[in-house]
Amino acid sequence: MECKYLVTFLIDTSNVNTLKQEYASLLIGKNATIFRSNQKAIADSISLAYIRKTMNSAGSNMPEINTGLLPSAKYQPEVLNRNGQITLYNAILEDLYSYPLNKNINWRIEKERKKIQGYTCTKVTCEYGNKSIIAWYTDEIPIPEGPYTFKGLPGLVLEAYDSKKYFHFILVGLVNVKKPIALPKVSIPTTYEKFYNKRKQLMDDPLGAFMNTFGRRAPKDNEERIIRNIKSINNFLD
Q1: β-strands 167-175, 188-189: how paired?
Q2: Is residue 156 part of a domain?
Q3: What is the extent of the structural domain holding 216?
Q4: Which of 12, 72, 178, 225 is most exposed by smallest CB count within 10 Å?
Q5: 53 within domain boundaries
Q6: Is 81 a domain residue?
Q7: Contact, 160 vs 146, CB < 8 A?
């Protein structure tokens, strides 16, 4: 089964003009599910290929890098649920990390009901990190799955969002189709705490992180743009 969602997300919490939308799919198999952006693989490969090409062709001179490609302004997280074990995949610059979900979601079932795509849905709420989450699930599809890590309910989650609408997932299509669940590419195993600290280091010292990742200093005339672009990607659902 493939559940297609429209994902709306804000890149920079201080700039409403950074609101983005793209489609993501939840593929549900017999023993595994995966939620990922439909555009992520293409966007990532183009961005990283461009960065490598400019650096490799620069010789001893510093390349001029389009910092708009660094890091990718697309919905990045991927979530794999294999036999009940949930693993998140997320990138920091060029490196893809994987870590087990370390949060237990305590859903509260509310009284409100509404229709989504013709299905009667029940409202649920929870606290997720520093965000308040509202979600709607339907027991007409008795599968304890949903977008991102919003799972474990008596039915499929058709809509989920935080109270500020920085992130919003809404089901737009449901197809009974058999598709192979392709696992994410090779990743660096870690814990959420280590991933969080690594990302914080990127935000605190973008140029240092750039050098550690790509093996050379950023072009002097691009430093301010690199810092600005990295720091502007500051809205994380985790």
Answers
A1: unpaired
A2: no
A3: 2-101+163-232
A4: 178
A5: yes
A6: yes
A7: yes
Taking the model in full, what pTM does it have?
Answer: 0.81
Measured distance between the N- and C-terminal CA atoms of the chain, rounded to whole angstroms: 26
Q: Beginning with the edge strand found earlier in the chain, give each strand of the sheet holding 156-162 in spatial order.
A: 108-116, 119-128, 131-138, 156-162, 167-175, 2-10, 19-28, 32-37, 78-82, 85-92, 95-100, 188-189
Q: Tokens for 17?
A: 């003009």
Using CB atoms within 10 Å of the CB of residue 227, give its burial: 0 to 12 exposed, 13 to 18 middle, 19+ buried: middle
Burial bucket for residue 22 (CB in 10 Å: 0-12, 13-18, 19+)? middle
Q: Do 44 and 91 touch, CB atoms closer than 8 A?
A: yes
Q: What are phi and psi of 197, to 5 degrees?
A: -65, -40
In 3D space, the residue among 144, 89, 138 whose CA is nearest the CA of residue 117 turns out to be 138
Q: Is residue 93 part of a domain?
A: yes
- Across 40-65, b (16+ Cβ under 10 Å) vs e yields beebbeebbeebeebeeeeeeebbeb
The identity of residue 69, as a single letter, is L
User: What is the per-residue pLDDT across 51-76, written as a single tens digit (0 to 9) for each?
Assistant: 556 555 544 444 444 544 444 447 88
- 8, with CB counted inside 10 A (0-12, 13-18, 19+), is middle
Contact predicate 169/160, CB 8 Å: yes
Least Cα distance to 84 among 119, 33, 49, 47 occurs for: 33
Give the tens place of pLDDT for each residue, 138-189: 999 999 999 999 999 999 999 999 999 999 999 999 999 888 888 887 899 9
Number of domains in the chain: 1
